[in-house]
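sry for the spam today, last one i promise. struct tokens for design, 286 residues
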């Protein structure tokens, strides 16, 4: 391996793993193991690397003895391998190497009783939103008190894996809402991330993120949750629309520029005619 040290090899391998496309982590693990001169190099750091990947990706797991799904996130980590499931009123144990839930225990002081009415109200509104807009998604809502401020975290993760058609994708958004116990104005800070991998006869990835900073009035739990979630919905829909616009722009400009202007016929392509031909072909097939 030349002058590359074992420490550098581990760092390179870890970087590959942490940047694995959604739904393909174990495949990347297998490939990386095969590239290393000593498999033990990866084993020594696997526990921490797997934990970092799973929590950063906010993987979805089934809540034990419940019908909902819960997210494995940094915000919900209460101990090594233990994660809050507030809606299920429990703390679940998660094995990052096996990537499975191994048990659960009742919540024992992990939820702040003062913040809980707000957290529960946000959870209700977030679940409604997810059920309407993210058929493959899940949400987990956390709450805590910081000084005289309440802090709610709404985590959303939605994945769809379609390896038979050579693509996988994941949406992630995390919203941190801070407001005073007596109401007033709520500050909303969000991070939205999309990662899609298409790999039929090639390797194309969309990996984009954006930050959002919003405000909304705060009052009682129900009103605050309703107002804030409406603001979140509006922001996420605007991001969806911007992605659609980007796809259209890339199709009409960027990708077109990548094609050669003169094909084998040595005649410049008239892209407007191509579009007309395609439409005519589709109409004749109906």
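last one done:
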């Amino acid at each position: 391996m030349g002058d590359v040290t074992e420490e550098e090899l581990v760092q390179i391998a870890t970087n590959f793993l942490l940047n694995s496309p959604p739904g393909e982590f174990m495949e990347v693990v297998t490939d990386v193991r095969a590239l290393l001169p000593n498999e033990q190099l990866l084993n020594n750091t696997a526990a921490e690397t797997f934990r970092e990947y799973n929590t950063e990706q906010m993987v979805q797991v089934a809540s034990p003895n419940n019908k909902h799904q819960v997210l494995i996130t940094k915000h919900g980590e209460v101990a090594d391998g233990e994660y809050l499931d507030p809606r299920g009123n429990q703390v679940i144990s998660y094995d990052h190497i096996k990537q499975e839930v191994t048990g659960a225990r009742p919540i024992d002081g992990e939820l702040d009783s003062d913040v809980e009415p707000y957290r529960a109200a946000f959870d209700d509104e977030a679940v409604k939103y997810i059920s309407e807009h993210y058929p493959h998604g899940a949400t987990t809502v956390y709450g805590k008190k910081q000084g005289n401020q309440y802090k709610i975290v709404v985590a959303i993760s939605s994945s769809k894996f379609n390896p038979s058609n050579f693509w996988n994708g994941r949406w992630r958004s995390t919203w941190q809402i801070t407001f005073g116990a007596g109401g007033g104005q709520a500050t909303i800070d969000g991070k939205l991330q999309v990662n899609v991998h298409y790999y039929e006869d090639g390797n194309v990835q969309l990996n984009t993120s954006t930050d959002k900073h919003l405000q909304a009035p705060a009052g009682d739990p129900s009103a605050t949750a309703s107002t804030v979630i409406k603001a979140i919905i509006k922001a996420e829909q605007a991001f969806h629309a911007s992605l659609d616009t980007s796809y259209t722009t890339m199709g009409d400009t960027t990708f077109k520029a990548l094609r050669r202007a003169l094909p084998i016929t040595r005649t410049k392509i008239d892209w407007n005619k191509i579009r007309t031909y395609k439409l005519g072909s589709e109409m004749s097939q109906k």
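The two ends are 59 Å apart (CA to CA). ok im logging off now
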